Amino acid sequence: MSNLPAELKYTASHEWIRDEGDGTVTIGITDHAQELLGDLVYVELPDVGRELDAEEACAVVESVKAASDVYAPIAGEVVAVNEALSDSPEMINSDAYGDGWLIKMKVEDGALDDLIDVDAYQAVLDDEG
Amino acid sequence: MLIFEQSSNGRRGTAQAPSKLADVSSIPEAFRRKTRAFMPEVSELQAVRHYTRLSQKNFSIDTEFYPLGSCTMKYNPRACNALAMLPEFLHRHPLAPESLSQGFLACLYDLQEMLKEVTGMKGVSLTPMAGAQGEFAGVAMIRAYHDARGDTARTEILVPDAAHGTNPATAVMCGFEVREIPTDEQGDVDLVALEAAIGPQTAGIMLTNPSTLGVFERRIKKIAGMVHDAGGLLYYDGANLNAILGKVRPGDMGFDVIHMNLHKTFSTPHGGGGPGSGAVGVGSRLLPFMPIPVVDYDCDEYRWLTEKDIPQTIGRLSAWMGNAGVLLRAYVYARMLGRDGMHRVGEFATLNANYLLALLKKSGFELAFPERRATHEFIVTLKNQAKEFGITATDVAKRLLDYGYHAPTIYFPLLVPECLLIEPTETEAKEDLDGFVETMKKILAEGTENIKTLKDAPVTLPVRRLDEVRAAKKLDLAWRPTTAFDAPEQAAN
After folding, report:
1. B411 — contact with chain A (CB < 8 Å)?
2. Best of A41, A65, A86, A128 to disrupt the B interface by mutation (most B CBs within 10 Å)?
């Protein structure tokens, strides 16, 4: 069973979002997503300063099986990216919610309201069977 | 061991040694090598043994079953090779005048005509040298069509999420943005999503039918109507043409352009580089934009059509006439099948796939689309075995190698977890299909009994399970000498 922290928000396309409480959020892919992808070998991240629309493809994660787009869960400006992933993409496999984070974004108040919580995400996973 | 590692200073195969060294005095001093290029120095027998051993390690359709989904690895009849290698073809110079090339041109013209008829298109150009180049030619023609009409606001190509990865790549290469269309749970294109995505910005849609999910897109005529009504064009990816060859024609489904992988459907060699051939067929809208050269016949003689005849052409895609030797093989294949034989390709490819599907289902393998009839290929998902026993698609694929089978395509399409995409083709006999099923059963039993047997596989091949992460991250592609002895510093000449 994959690990699902209760305090995070999620998307049906398997991203997680942590509200940092200072107008920024941290975004990554879920433990379930890294499990499906398998061993990651390459991560492509957006430029800092880029303005993203909600659901815009903003990063690429590539594993030994497949390359997959990561979508911005909400609109906002990229304020930081996890540079360490270029040398060690496997951190996403080992610590999807911690060292394996992808980007930090500055977002507007209330931007997270429409995202799904842990129960709704669990339901998405159950649906996928 | 690499042939470089067998090298011994001064050893040579005399048969290959030039009797006289070339005069290089006309090359300016600055551009001449100061040291000799390092070549392996071995005897003729060492070279022969080295490459013979390598060839024995090779896996090919000539030795074993090769159920690599979406790749159509079928038998390449020997007659195609023999006839394409007649000295009159082999020794023809690409610049030979048309008057001395009538036989060669006649073969290409007939191939164009046969491909037109079997796909229902209005024109065929044989010049693309691979499937990817055929795709590029197809989408470049769609672009040229819209540009010629001043319709430059069309910036998007629609691509279903079940598409081959080359489709979105091709659209981007041609300057378009890609919009992905989801698939419904039956494997068809989601029409509601398609309707929402179509608009004045739609340049076209790229579809594979049957799709990579191994099912036929049943509402293709409706899709064609929707895209055409919005002013877009339809591109047919010919990757899976083998399933419908001689039975259904892409032209009749409403497609404006199609690429054909002659190295799949028309049985020319592929795997290990082919070379391929991605001939394109077009409907009337795209006739003025075909890549050149095309062969024409005026009831008297055959001739090349060039930019003089097709001024709006997207241009040349190869120096001469595509992979001419491959085109000749495809021509012989089509002639051997004839009109009657061609539709049996689609029939037997489908029959073999459904036979294999039924037996595997009976043997405990779960199908990704159990309610759909397979076309020429189908998908097995191991998601339950993965959960219960830890048996992954990789494990089964690696164990198949131990039993002398090429692994099916795995983890593609991406939509299906732990999947094997299996395509037997029409050229396998029933006994060979039965043998494959028995082996699959055996592997499943091994996995449920002791998963280690599968995790250790392959154990009979020259290399064991590879570290794929290391292989992808720490590329080691070129051998370089490590000692002075390996690379003798010798002056040129």
Report:
1. yes
2. A65
Query: Smallest CA–CA separation between A41 and chain B, in Å?
Result: 6
Highest mean pLDDT among B29-33, B199-203, B475-479: B199-203
Nearest to B408, CA basis, from B371, B381, B442: B381
The pLDDT tens digits for B175-199 are: 999 999 999 988 899 999 999 999 9
Residue pLDDT, tens place only, B45-57: 999 999 999 989 8
**Quick one: three-class SS letters along B290-329?**
CCECEEEECCCCEEEECCCCCCCCCCECCCCCCCHHHHHH
Q: Chain A within 8 Å of B472 (Cβ-Cβ)?
A: yes
Across the interface, of B414, B417, B469, the residue whose CB is closest to A64 is B469
Q: What domains, with CATH codes, occur in chain A?
A: 13-111 (2.40.50.100)
Residue range B78-337 in CATH 3.40.640.10:
yes
The domains of chain B are located at 3-57, 78-337, 346-473
Q: Out of B238-247, B280-289, B407-416, pick the least confident.
A: B407-416
CATH topology of domain B346-473: Aspartate Aminotransferase, domain 1 (3.90.1150)
Q: Which residue of A has its CA nearest to B470?
A: A41
Neighbours of B320 (CB within 10 A): 12
